[in-house]
Amino acid sequence: MNILESLNLIGSWELDLSTKNITWSKQTYINYGYEPFSIAPSLEFFFSRLVPIYIPQAQKILQDIQNSKEIHTLQAQIIHKDGDIIDVLLSGQTLYNETNEAVKIIGTTQNITKLLNIKKENEELSKLIEISSNEIYIVDIETFSYLYVNQGACDALGYTKEEFYAMTIFDINPKLSQDNASYMRNELRKTNKFTNKTVHKKKDGSLYHAQAFMHTFTYKGKEAYVIFDTDISKNVAAEIALAQQQKNLHHQANHDTLTNLPNRALFLDRLQQIIHSAKRNNTQFALFFIDLDHFKTINDTLGHALGDQVLIEATARLRQCVREADTIARLGGDEFTVILKNIKTQEDVSKIAEKIVTIMRKTITIKNHALYISASIGISMYPKDADESDALIKYADTAMYKAKDEGRDNFQYYKSSMTKFAFERVVMDASLRVAIKEEQFVVYYQPQVDLQTDKIIGMEALVRWIHPLMGLRSPGKFIPLAEESGLIIEIDRLVMRSAMQQFAAWYKAGLNPGTLSLNLAMKQLNEEDFIDILFTTMQEFNFQARWLELEVTEGQVMDNPALSIQKLQQLSQMGIQIAIDDFGTGYSSLSYLKKFPLDKLKIDQSFVRDLPEDEEDIAITKAIIALAKSLKFTIIAEGVETQAQKDFMIENECDLMQGYFFSKPIPASEMEVLLKN
């Protein structure tokens, strides 16, 4: 309500002191709620319309008016005709004649209900602004100094109002520059409002984020703007946390959770980017496909938790071998890839590959387990081998399998001839599965002979594959693939069942085949049901434990010596003999060797082949025989093919021999003839 509106609500009245007659103006009637001149005003009517608590005060003021020449006022409440309570401001003054005699009283009646409501609202609003938890500032738009701050601002920043009035906005907004403030002022003058986020600095030096809403207006005659600030630190923290969460989710979607290496998806993306870069810059790069040798054995025998630790250690070793700009990724299981960027020469690639092969050979010790792994690496080159990602991966993978076939623990570059080899592997795998199902495998037997008597004391059962189209397949063609695929377990069980059945039949027929020596893959040994199946098969054919010898290779048992000892002891306690095959080709620890429940050591044929001419083979063979004698093991030499080799073994007190000098592996029917003769 403005002043003119307020004046329009003022009515006048006059009281003749001699006649006591009262006259009201039109507005006075309206203030009381009556039609103008519709009633006769009187003092009695006036007092009847007053709210009772104001009557004594009104009577006293009326008396005071008559006794002085001053204007007297009374703020009171009257009862409107419609029953509402109206706030009024009453004023009155006595008029005197020439003889100084009081003749009349004149006065006004002003309806101030709206004015009081506005005042009350203003007071409430001022109080609300003052106690608001939001920070409210009024700032001089020219000097940026504070003209007003509420208590919320003082509480938020720790300053008193007096301290605020001596500062400018730059004192609490340390990141606000003069240029930004000038820009804000120009925007305010153009649009009358401005919004931004800022950082406030408290009196104690701490910082927090604030959201500011600004509007221009005139304050005490000055061009100013009001700022409503809200602490948004929690919102900012939530946004940061959400951004971090999204970042983490993106990282998890593109990285292996165990090793934190890029996963297959990120690897493929990186490879594609590097191909584009290499094409643009006319550079070359190498792709490594790496598979950890013997890892599955460790994982299956010692559990995934320990296997995970091996993968983490392998990752750390790979990181030591490559540059920071190169990419290492884990595709899954024990398969890794490495992209070597900006390669100058193939020699540089070979150095890194050799470095990886060498470092992977080092013993890994985890929870008192001394573990041995190695790496087989296949390498494809861009653009020499291919210029597309799928082909580069395929060729590196093919080369890796070639490294496996070359005895593992090495690296191989891709050659076009390997593609045919890879195809043959796929065909071979499928054929093996069919061969198992259709029982295309047969057992051949190679005699083991006493060197002193030339008598057969046992024989080794060796699997042969009679392919329906390709005929007889040698073990070297399919055993490595069977071991990798896990099919070796089913093949070993077929051989075990067939050989036990045949041996039992020979004994029943009165023949003396001696000891049956079966090759036992560690995958087979580590199967939970192996001992149960072995015992059940022996019972089925009435096969005696003393007839059986199980051969395990040195390299396999040394992958996990502690577990191997435990498993082999169970077999030894059943009365089954244990032999170490290919002795001298692995990484045996003598401290472990003496703990194995062994009965026999087999000297690998690689040491026998060049006897008695090769000096190194002579020294190694003599050392193995001496070691076996000291540990009271029976010693057998395999691969004996000449009289000179036999004589050497006799001279050096080797116990047994096996090899073509006496007999090649032969089918059961031919072996039966040997036994009868």
Task: Please explain how this structure is put together.
- By secondary structure, the chain is of the alpha+beta class.
- The protein has four domains: 3-118, PAS domain (Beta-Lactamase, 2-Layer Sandwich); 132-235, 2-Layer Sandwich (Beta-Lactamase), CATH 3.30.450.20; 255-415, Reverse transcriptase/Diguanylate cyclase domain (Alpha-Beta Plaits, 2-Layer Sandwich); 444-676, TIM Barrel (Alpha-Beta Barrel).
- It contains 27 helices and 27 strands.
- The strands form five sheets. It has an eight-stranded mixed beta barrel, surrounded by four helices. Strands 2-1-5-4-3 form a five-stranded antiparallel sheet, with helices on both faces. It has a five-stranded antiparallel sheet with strand order 7-6-10-9-8, sandwiched between helices.
- Strand 9 and strand 10 (222-231) form a beta hairpin.
- Helix 12 (295-302) runs antiparallel to helix 13 (304-321), helix 13 runs antiparallel to helix 14 (346-361) and helix 16 packs across helix 17.
- The model is unreliable at 1-7 (pLDDT under 50).
